[in-house]
Amino acid sequence: MRDLKNLIILTALIIFSAWFAQNNSQLPDVAFYSIVIGIPIFYLVRILLSKRVKHKKLVTHKLNFWSAKRTTQITLDLDLDTTFELLQELPTNMEKISLVDSDKTNSSLLFLTKANWLTWGSNVYINLESVNSGQTNVIIHIVAFQLYNWGENEKILEQIKFALDSKLMV
Amino acid sequence: MNIVIDLDVVMAQKKMSLNELSEKVGISNVNLSILKQNKAKAIRFSTLEAICEALNCQPGDIIKYE
Hints:
The structure holds 2 protein chains of 2 kinds. Chain A is an alpha+beta fold. Helix content of chain A is about 45%, strand content about 25%. A two-stranded antiparallel sheet of chain B has the order 1-2. The interface of A and B includes residues 77, 78 and 82 of A.
């Protein structure tokens, strides 16, 4: 759904850019190219950024005003490796989330939530930190690529907490 | 006094590995590992039944109150 939506929008942007180029050739070069090339490139970069866990710092940074963020921390009574594996199995307990990238050396995972016609879907970045006595801190960043989030992030967070709880019921 | 899971003891007695038990019971290695480490919040009757069947033991051999 998300890929289809991205494809439709990218095609629409290219068509719009081509149409704009045909009808506005008298515009100054800078303005012309920033519209014709800039918009589709910005959109492509946005898609690429959203699917790589290594861009987490850029995307979840507090000064990135282009994304609505929600961050929370949960402590689990499990060691780091078990927690990492448990989180990799999370999509089996949640319908609307899929694992797209995981990095065991940095103990971080990236999930994407499904897009629909009302939302782009969110990125869910999870970082793990080992604490004393075999406990692990699970730091969850939910990032929606829109200026304001209409409560979707909170809903996803509740679903993740519920799914984690369910995973501990064997 | 706590509920203690003695799954590793029974597994050692029956000489069964975690992978083997996981395949027989039909739950993931991670879930079994959580159970073995005594970190599970609850255990389903269906899981308990499957473990007892796979290890040919009684629930009391796996779960203890001490």
